[in-house]
Design brief:
The protein is mostly helical. The protein is built from 9 helices and no strands. The longest helix is centred in the middle third of the chain and has 24 residues. About 5% of the residues have low confidence.
């Protein structure tokens, strides 16, 4: 067991505080002393997030969830690996509304190209998006694209960004592979 505040420490420091004694047990005294010195983490919803969260929750409840059943009923109508015309219409229509409302690409945390959300703030939005089958996709926050785009944004060369993600902006961040 490693208390969560210790997870934020660099590995070299964390390993010193979580050393095992000769009998194989963690040196709990050190672990608890460090955790106490780091203080409590505020995991509540920030003022910055509240209006964004409200808009996302409202769009999911009022517009996305009502279309989930119709979207899923289309799976059996065509090739199960391709969207039917109606599925495309539903999904692209919802995406357009999300973009128009500025509700796009929340996943890019701690970046100048994102919304400036922390991982904790993003978690609140991810929880809301998980309430609908289409939730994450509508807001351009679905795996694996989000992780791939984050790698391009943070570690990619300019060539990678140009070829793999030509529209790497908050409004348009879409992966092209």
């Amino acid at each position: 067991f490693i208390p969560s505040p210790l997870l934020a420490l660099p590995n070299k420091i964390r390993s010193w505080f979580t050393r095992k004694d000769p009998s194989g047990h963690l040196q709990q005294r050190c672990v608890h002393a460090v955790a106490a010195s780091l203080g409590a983490m505020d995991l509540g919803m920030s003022e910055h997030l509240k209006p964004i969260h409200k808009k996302v929750a409202q769009m999911i409840a009022d517009e996305i969830i009502p279309l989930d059943e119709e979207f899923l009923s289309e799976v059996e109508k065509g090739d199960r690996w391709e969207y039917t015309p109606r599925q495309t219409e539903i999904l692209e229509g919802l995406k357009a509304k999300a973009k128009e409302r500025g509700l796009w690409n929340f996943w890019l945390t701690d970046s100048s190209k994102g919304y400036g959300l922390t991982i904790v703030e993003y978690a609140y939005l991810a929880e809301e998006m998980s309430k609908a089958h289409l939730g994450a996709e509508v807001f351009n926050c679905s795996a694996p694209d989000t992780g791939n785009m984050e790698v391009f944004e943070r570690y990619g060369t300019e060539t990678h960004k140009k070829n793999g993600c030509p529209d790497c902006s908050k409004e348009k961040f879409v992966l092209h592979i």
